[in-house]
Amino acid sequence: MESDSDVVFIDSSVLISCGRRESTRFQSLAREARQRDTVFRISPQVYAEVTGDPALEEYTADNTAVDEALQEGWMKVTESPSYSNSEVSNVMDQARSFIASASDRPEDAVEKADAEIVGLALELILNDNADRITIVTNDIPLGEAAESLLPQYGFDDDQITWLTGGELADELAEDFVPEFD
Amino acid sequence: MLSVQTDISFGSVSARLLRFACNSLLEMATREANWETPLDTGGEVFALLRNARKAWIYTYIRHHPETTIQAIVETLELPQRTVYEYVDDLEAAGFIDQANEGRPAEYTAQEIDLQLVEDDTERRITAELVEAIARRTQDDDIDTYIDRHGLDGLAVAIEYAQEYVDGSVTHQIMACEQEISPLEAGVILDALRPVVED
User: Fold this and answer.
1) Residue A7 near residue A124, CB atoms below 8 Å
2) How far out from the chain centre does Cα B138 lie?
3) Chain A 93-152, CB below 8 Å of chain B: which residues?
4) Which of A13, A167, B88, B95 has the smallest number of CB atoms closer than 10 Å to its CB?
5) If you measure CA to CA, which chain A residue comes closest to B77?
6) What pTM was estimated for this model as a whole?
7) Each residue of A159-170: pLDDT tens digit?
């Protein structure tokens, strides 16, 4: 695995919001990747979530946009995190716990797979393969889990950043119905 | 049998709890003597839920206090006659008031907060629900969601959207609890964000 100074993970909630207006929001995402001179990473589970849904055709969500991004090279699908690595597995369980607590739900209401982004980030930290990690998600409990748990593994607070889609790019938070502004 | 409980205050009119049953004949169970047009209020709420354009006009006025008919016609690009008719209906029901004296009339919206009770099910009819319905005219995703899950599904989704912006739910949790796909949950939460984020 190559060593990147700045690694950015995009979660499914953000990709789903980008898919709502065909490629317009995706163009903004592409621009951000270019400006940051980085390739955005998504997990295999995120890829499956945003492309494999039969309900897709009913919504304006455009499943080709993700594949185009992969082809154009500014986004890539990573390997799954290593569930057999005890630290990686552990941090994902901790993230599950954190999310369950933040949402006042029982722990089994949260799937381990939903916290993969935290496991992937930890793998980079453990392998010393990144200087800074940015996690982009609109799921607030997940973002807070990442910010809270990952610094405990030897990263400084400012080496882990959680951004919502709107914080990554203004267009991702724009309202489509402007007359209510 | 459907019943509607309303608790609306209109400035100088004090809050009252009113309960009446809605069917095609609109029977009233109880009524306060000085309550204005309760039948119109109940009927008008259902009209708002069924008529996205009327919901759109109400929501526009709510976001732009003291607006005029002309402004509504121009901004929403609706026929003047339609706007006049719908504004009259909304005013008769007490959902909007003329805020000034004289012409051109300037309208301001009252908040809507009603509770719909049927057997064991309760649903709140709020200005947010009306706004979500209004948005279906512009947002295909909300339109699709209503087609797939009805207004009840939309009302439930708005509750989740409030939790979402408060940071107390993820889209996967909503998907699991509502038995929809994570993608559909993610779409509707994104679509309703501006509705609940004031």
Assistant:
1) yes
2) 16
3) 99, 102-105, 109-111, 114, 138-142, 144
4) B88
5) A179
6) 0.86
7) 999 999 999 999
**List of E strands, A47-181:** 75-77, 130-136, 160-163
Task: Say if residue B19's pLDDT is above 70.
Answer: no
Cα angle, residue A119 at apex, residues A114 and A123 outer, rounded to 5°: 160
Taking only the tens place, the pLDDT of each residue in B68-104 is 999 999 999 999 999 999 999 999 888 999 999 999 9
pLDDT at B115: 83
Q: Does A181 sit within 8 Å of B168, measured CB to CB?
A: no
Residue pLDDT, tens place only, A77-115: 999 999 999 999 999 999 999 999 999 999 999 999 999
Of B63, B169, B182, the CB nearest to A103: B169
A–B CB contacts, 8 A cutoff, strictly below: 104
**Residues paired with B96 in a beta bridge:** B109
**Average pLDDT score, chain A:** 90
Long-range contacts of B140-149 (CB under 8 A, 24+ apart): B140/A59, B140/A60, B141/A20, B141/A59, B141/A60, B141/B187, B141/B188, B141/B190, B141/B191, B142/B188, B142/B191, B142/B192, B144/A58, B144/A59, B145/B184, B145/B187, B145/B188, B145/B191, B148/A58, B148/B184, B149/B180
